[in-house]
Design brief:
6-stranded mixed sheet; 5 helices; 12 strands; two-stranded antiparallel ribbon; homodimer; globular; Trna Endonuclease, Chain: A, domain 1; 192 residues
């Protein structure tokens, strides 16, 4: 159980409600992005899964059929777009571990991509679902960077307490399903 | 032959040089984007081609093999990223027509996507290669919008002269192969 940092105002930790439980985080985000786009709040899309196409059949009177292809490792994160005039970029992680999240689960190319985005003035972060807590956190890239720095000489993971203490909880609402941009707002406010 | 608008300073129209001729525009852009990323000028990537995966084999001791899949229509443009702290988004078109470019070649969902990006304050445009002229132009979304507006009651295409007069020529250099961000700079300057 995470010991949540006590703040002046006691904060009721939101949980993934019954209707969202079991729904893959990716689906929740896709539905939320659709809501954000339709309501004009942001334009954020998931990038397609990169596939290396080796062979394609062109049957008569039918559309092209790919008959041999392989998954490729993505060179960036899965989501990007524009929010409040700013470039936004993030990836999604999920952990079923009870106490910590191993940093090796974040691929080097994703770290480098988020670092570049951050340096160029974009909003860069991870959305991490902690299954044991039924909670989703936004972890800003600069926080992740501190843990990566520590990992060079010390601990190779972030404890769930550290994620909760340094991240921004993502609230569940009816529409959007998860309001991660509200967490982005709190994060940006802290930056300014 | 396009009659280029005469400006105070006589402008030598650049052409696609021999080393780039025949190289697909997409490859030129990919190479340029790599150069932009490596030199820290911008972080811009091409999105993967969207594919609907129907069947996957998991052979023992070998990586997953996709055995049935189909191309899907992209819901956005092909390129996006961050430049000078701003969100940038564009698609690439190529025409071999001698006198004009038909607007029906630009898919409705791409137009809507670029319009959303533009409204949210992003830099939205098309890169159009005019093969007959060996030239590439950056056409800002707001210019495209004017031609789309005209198409409602009149002409359903843009003449090559109109593209040249309203667009920004993209210069070819050694590195990057095509310096389209330099054209973006001129476009942004005109906006300010």
């Amino acid at each position: 159980m995470i010991k949540y940092p006590t703040t002046k105002k006691r904060y009721q930790r939101p949980r993934i409600g019954k209707q969202n439980r079991g729904m893959a985080l990716e689906k929740l985000i896709d539905a939320s992005n659709q809501h954000y786009r339709e309501s004009g709040r942001a334009v954020i899309h998931k990038k397609p899964t990169p596939v290396q196409i080796v062979n394609v059949d062109y049957p008569e009177r039918a559309r092209a059929k790919i008959t041999e292809a392989y998954y490729r490792r993505p060179s960036t994160t899965d989501y990007n777009g524009i929010y409040k005039g700013r470039y936004i970029d993030f990836d999604v992680k999920e952990t079923h571990h009870e106490t910590s999240y191993a940093l090796k689960n974040i691929h080097q190319h994703q770290i480098e991509h988020l670092r570049s985005v951050h340096r160029h003035g974009g909003i860069a972060f991870l959305l991490i679902r902690v299954a044991a807590e039924d909670a989703i956190f936004l972890l800003p890239f600069e926080t992740l960077e501190k843990f990566l720095e520590r990992a060079k000489t010390g601990r190779k993971s972030m404890t769930l307490e550290e994620i909760a203490a340094n991240g921004y909880i993502v609230r569940e609402t009816l529409a959007p399903r998860i309001d991660y941009l509200e967490a982005v707002d709190r994060y940006i406010k802290g930056q300014a």
